[in-house]
Amino acid sequence: MTIIDTPGQLSVPRTADQLGANAIRVLAMDGVQQANSGHPGMPMGMADAAYVLWSRFLKHNPSDPAWPNRDRFVLSAGHGSMLLYALLHLTGYDLGLDELRNFRQLGSRTPGHPEYGHTPGVETTTGPLGQGIATAVGMALAERYLAEQFNRPAFTLVDHHTYVIAGDGDLMEGLSHEAAGIAGHLKLGKLIVLYDDNHITIDGSTDMSFTENTLQRFQAYGWNTQAIDGHDQAAVTAALTQARSTSDRPTLIACRTTIGFGSPNKAGTSKVHGEPLGAAEVRLTRQNLGWTDETPFAVPDEVYANFRQAVPAGQAAQQTWSALLAGYRTAHPELAVRWDATFGRDLPADFNAVLPAFPADPKGQATRAASGLVINALAPHIPALLGGSADLHGSNLTLIKGEAAIQPDAWGGRNLYFGVRENGMGSVLNGMALHGGIIPYGGTFMVFSDYMRPAIRLAALMGQQVIYVFTHDSIGLGEDGPTHQPIEHLATLRALPNLFVERPADANETAVAWQVALTRRDGPTALILTRQALPTLDPSIRAGALRGGYVLRDAENPQAIVLATGSEVEIALEAAELLAQRGVAARVVSLPCWELFAQQNAAYRESVLPSNITARVAIEAAATFGWERFVGAQGRVLGIDTFGASGPYKELYRHFGLTAERVADTVGELVAS
To answer: By three-state DSSP, how is residue 536 classified?
Structure first.
């Protein structure tokens, strides 16, 4: 009996190796067959490669899926989720066999695609193809950055790999190109991708649409590449060994596989990609694999004994690391304090002591400029804060002054340069947040948030603390015209569940918006910031802004309410003054964050927007959709339900009727009616 014995890895008989891979195949096809729904082909094809990775290389502790120094595993080809569920079950995670039997059923812990926070051991939600590999780049980036910050001679606290299984679909998506470019540039040597090169997609052979030389493409990105037989476990072992010894480049291993391996009639065809094999074919596949037990989901004891070695091995690895951390606390006490603050995402005990307070000023400043000042005021007090921009640092004002740029051979700074890769940036930010130890932020023009929307949606779905700095928020950017002027973007971002959208009216609301984003731990926040200067309000408004909406200007016995966000708050205040001159008492309400305001109790919301005042006008330089919840059936919304135009911004505001005079006239009509 041949024994594979690699130092630091498990020793298992060769016969047990094939049994282990076939156990993955059988569980995958049984789960899909039971659900009468799913994708058995990829798990069956990649079972050998996955088995080798999880049994010989992956450093993890099924008893503690959150151990900081574990290797990360990302199933980017998330449709093949039964591969991951089988591995998690077999290696001893808290995922019982009944959960595999309930694959894709309502309430189970085995949904159709892996979902972070729902299933123990799932590192990230992978549904849309390309998101997994791009998120993994963020995880590998976080590992490299934190290793530079904390590792010291004899104390290597941060030392783990990020492994990915990706398919043809992942590599076709443009997102993977952007993320691979970032990874290659930064030389993320601990990122290893196993590419399921099975030549099959839903429509059939990849030859119909995907004929580029994938290995050459990744070589051009600066990756190490290999091509192997994905069913040869010795070849997979050798390839992973070589990849782990390559420290200056990420690695792509093209595993040539047969989709649905083991199925006598459907292997190698698109029929096995996204539908059950069928009861008859399941029986034939069992026979073909030499799997004698016909009972669905039955796993031999020797298979469990093999896989479950991961539990004591993982516990021992974590205990060794914990002892190392204890020694680190003695040898490097100041760094240990910083370690705790970083991984705890600690914030200033008193935000008022570190947040800049901006004095009232009619000239004011752009909220993007105020945001830059806030970032630099907070960064020294929040070691976990790390971010950058998609080639727009000079416009987004996202640089931390005095900190260097992170570059392939220089990781001591705190400024990231993503290049013109908004799509990739969004997913990399997710990976950084998921890794732990980082509060990531990323900046671009608001109109380009369209490129990031899938990643923003996943951040909201996973409840990750990611901060988006979206500047140039409206027609206020002026001459660049309708291609760069966001119109519908506020409405679409607000439509995302669990995303806070902060559109501050001045520098002080901007400071509060950052405070909200940093204290919020269960979801992302988008900061929507102006290019043009806005008058600075009195700092006393900050308490109201912390509640998402507040009365900015009141009147005795108000007859009407004018609501606004961002740059249009200035117009609302001017309109209230005009109305006062006309004998109409109007309250002005600033609503910088609808989502936060909605979380306030009913009494507070009623105090801001009394239900008996039905004459309401909202003004926002964006699509009017959504404002009806605040103005009611009798109110009006002044906005822009067309595309913008090119010209000086003040002329654009007049052109689109976003003026104090129009607001006052509209309020007057409502009060008189």
So the answer is: strand
Q: How many residues does the chain have?
A: 673
CATH architecture of the domain with range 351-540: 3-Layer(aba) Sandwich (3.40)
Question: Any idea what DSSP says for residue 559?
Answer: S
3.30.365.10, 3.30.420.270, 3.40.50.920, 3.40.50.300: CATH of 547-672: 3.40.50.920
DSSP string for 344-369 = TT---S-HHHHS--PPPEEEEEEHHH
Annotation says 422 is catalytic = yes
Identify residue 286 by its one-letter amino acid code: R
DSSP category for residue 405: B
- Helix, strand or coil, per DSSP, at residue 374: helix
Alpha helices in 46-120 (DSSP H): 47-52, 81-91, 97-101
Specify the pTM.
0.96
CB 570 within 8 A of CB 650: no
Which helix (DSSP H) or strand (DSSP E) does residue 333 occupy? helix 333-343
Exactly one of 99, 123, 422, 568 is catalytic; which is it?
Answer: 422
DSSP type of residue 396: H
Query: Would you give the distance in Å from CA 153 to the centre of its chain?
Result: 33
Task: Region of 650 please: left (phi>0), alpha (psi -120 to 50) or beta.
Answer: alpha
Closest CA to 21 of 257, 191, 313, 199: 257
Please state, in angstroms and as integers, the Cα–Cα distance from residue 536 to each residue in 356, 395, 565, following that order: 13, 20, 14
For position 15, what pLDDT does the model report? 85
| CATH (residue range 8-316) | 3.40.50.970
Q: How far apart are the first and last CA of the chain?
A: 92
pLDDT digits (tens, 9 = 90+) for 513-551: 999 999 999 999 999 999 999 999 999 999 999 999 999
pLDDT for 285: 97
Q: How far apart are CA 178 and CA 72, in angstroms?
A: 21
CA distances from 418 to 433, 527, 528 (A): 16, 19, 20
Mark 503-532 as b/e (b = at least 16 C-beta within 10 Å).
bbbbbbbbbbbbbbbbebeebbbbbbbbbb
Distances (CA, A) of 389 to 295, 397, 434: 54, 9, 19
Helices (H) and strands (E) in the chain, counts: 28, 22
Q: Kindly report the three-state secondary structure assignment for every residue of 250-283.
A: CEEEEEECCCCCCCCCCCCCHHHCCCCCCHHHHH
Tokens of 410: 């220089």
Where do the domains of the chain lie?
8-316, 351-540, 547-672
How confident is the model at residue 33, as a pLDDT?
Answer: 98
pLDDT in tens, 138-195: 999 999 999 999 999 999 999 999 999 999 999 999 999 999 999 999 999 999 999 9
Q: Decide: 259 and 41 in contact? Cβ < 8 Å.
A: yes
